[in-house]
Amino acid sequence: MDPYKYRPSSAFNTPFWTTNSGNPVWNNNSVLTVGNRGPILLEDYQFVEKIANFDRERIPERVVHARGASAKGFFEVTHDVSHLTCADFLRAPGVQTPVIVRFSTVIHERGSPETIRDPRGFATKFYTREGNFDLVGNNFPVFFIRDAMKFPDVIHAFKPNPKSNVQENWRILDYLSHHPESFNTFTWFYDDVGIPVNYRHMEGFGVHTYTLLNKAGKVLYVKFHWKPTCGVKSLLEEEAIRIGGTNHSHATQDLYDSIAAGNYPEWKLYFQTMDPDHEDNFDFDPLDTTKTWPEDILPLQPVGRLVLNKNIDNFFAENEMLAFSMHVVPGISYSNDKMLQGRIFAYADTQRHRLGPNYLQLPVNAPKCAHHNNHHDGFMNFMHRDEEVNYFPSRFDPVRHAERVPMSNAIINGRRERSVIEKENNFKEGGDRYRSWAPDRQERFIKRWVEALSDPRLTHEIRSIWISYLTQADRSLGQKVASRLNVRPSI
Ligand code: HEM
Questions:
Q1: Please, which residues bridge with residue 128 across strands?
Q2: How does it assemble (predicted)?
C-alpha cells in the first residue's frame, strides 16, 4: 500500500469511530475515570484529542466581510472579446470556467443579520487554466474613499464603537465629514439599494480600474460590471426589520434554497473600457474609486454569464476557508488605482494571518491547473513532494519558465510623493444620481440623512459640513435636510 495515496477526507471513511490517527475508538460515550465516580485520567488520549479539536474549531473571522454565503458554478463566455484581452478563459464564446462566488456584508460579525444597511461583497474566484483570477467586488460601483492609506480608518469608523461595541452614526459621519469624496457612495448607501433583498437580486462591480492586455500588447483600462438576470431588488426599512426579525440568515437561505430548487442565479458580465490615452479627457480621474465612468460615452460591452448551479458541501471548507487574494491572470492586470494597489498587498497578507502561509493549498483555494514552484514547507503544509532539487536554476531540474505573457510597457516616472488625487470633482456624480430619482426615492434618501444627522453626539460643526456637502451636490437636497434639522445651509 502506498501510504501517501490516501488524503484525509470524509470519503476515506471507516464504518467505526477512530481517533485522528486511526486508532479504533470502542467507547465514544464515557470519559476514562478512576473507578465509576473518580477523576478523569490524563491518559484518556481519545477524550483529550476530542476536546482539543473542539477547542480549536474556530479560526479568526475575516476582519471585514465576515458574514457571507458562497456557491459554485461556472462562467461562460458569450461574446468574442479576444481583441481586448488574451486571457485564456475569455478566449472564445462557449468557453466555460468553474467558479466559486462569495457574497457578504461588510461590517458586522460572522453571525450578524443579513438585513442591515451595508455594502454587499461580490467576490468571484475563477479557476482558470492559467491559475486563479479573483474578482473581488461590491454591489456598489463606487467606494467611500480613494486612498488605501485610509481603509483601516473608514472601517474602524463603521465598525462598532470600541467602547460600547455598538455601531454609531456619529462616528461614521464624523470620519467621513473629512472626506467629501464619500458623498457619491452615500447615494448608494442611503439609497434603497443599501439593503439588497437577497444576494441574487443585486449587481456586482469590480469598482477599480483594471487593465486588459491583448496579444499585441495593447493596454486598455477596464471596469467590470455584473448584472443579475432576475433584476435588482431591495428592502425598505420596514421590510428589512420584519425579515431580519424572523430570520437573520435570510439571504444565505435564499441562495441555498434557490440553487437546491434548480432556480440557478445568473449574472451577465460586462466590460467598460477606456483607452489610457484618453484618461485626461474627463472631469474626473479614471483611477478614482469614488467615480463611475459615463456609460453613454463608454458603453458596457457584454462578455459572458455567471451561473451558480451548485451549493457548497461544507460551510467551513468552502466559505470560512475560502480566501481571495486579488490574483490576476495573463491578459488582465492592475492599474495604478491607489486603492487597488493597496489591496494587492492586503488580501494575501490577511490570508496568511487568518489561514496560514499555505492557505493556497486548501482545496477551495488551490488552482485547478497544474502548478509548480520551490516555495515549500511552513505550517500545515500537506503537499507530498519527493524532489531532490528545490532551488533554481539547476542542471538536474527540467522545469522551465512559463511562456512570456504580455505586460504593459508603460513608462512610470515621477517624484516619490504622498499626495491626493487632483481632479476631485466630489459632488457632480452624486448630485446627478440624486436628481435622476423619482420624488419618493429622493424623499427616502432625505429621511435617511435626517435620521443619521440627528444622532445627538454629532456636533453643529459636523452637521453643517454635511449640509454644505449635500448642498454642493444638489441645492434643494441640502435645503430640505437643513430645514428638517433646523440647520442653516452654508457652503
Ligand atoms: C485599500 C482598500 C481595501 C483593503 C485594505 C481591503 C482589505 C480587506 C480585507 C483585509 C479583507 C478580508 C479578507 C479575508 O479575510 O478573507 C477584505 C475582504 C473583502 N473586501 Fe476588501 N479591502 C479594501 C477595499 C475593498 C474594495 C474597494 C472592495 C470592493 C470593490 C472590497 C471588497 C471586499 C470583499 C468582497 C471582501 C470579502 C471577500 C470574501 O468574500 O472572502 N474591498 N478586504
A1: 131
A2: Homotetramer.
- Listed in sequence order, the residues at least 6 apart from 348 whose beta carbon sits closer than 8 Å to its beta carbon are 325, 326
Instruction: Give the Cα-Cα-Cα angle 353, 357, 359 (nearest 5 degrees).
Output: 90
Question: In terms of Cα–Cα distance, which of 290, 254, 356, 20 is closest to 144?
Answer: 290
Q: Does 393 sit behind a cis peptide bond, omega within 30 degrees of 0 on the bond before it?
A: yes
- In whole angstroms, what is the distance from residue 103 CA to residue 323 CA? 13
Question: How far apart, in whole angstroms, are the C-alpha atoms of residue 141 and residue 26?
Answer: 58
Per DSSP (E only), the strands in 244-294 are 266-274
Distance 73 CA to ligand 1 centre (A): 22
Q: What per-residue confidence (pLDDT) applies to 7?
A: 59
How far apart are alpha carbons 72 and 307 in whole angstroms? 8
**Please, which pLDDT band fits residue 489 given cuts at 50, 70 and 90?**
low
Ligand 1 lining (C-beta closer than 6 Å): 62-65, 68, 102, 104, 121, 123, 136-138, 143, 148, 151, 207, 289, 322-324, 339, 342-343, 346-347, 350, 354
Report the distance separating Cα 473 and Cα 436, nearest Å: 13
Query: 312-322 pLDDT, tens per residue?
Result: 999 999 999 99
In our burial notation (b when 16+ CB lie closer than 10 A, e otherwise), range 299-337 reads ebeebbbbbbeebbeeeeebbbbbbbbbbbbbbbbbbeb
C-alpha triplet 212, 216, 218: angle, nearest 5°: 40
pLDDT by residue (tens digit) across 262-276?
999 999 999 999 999
Asked whether the predicted pLDDT for residue 4 surpasses 80, the reply is no
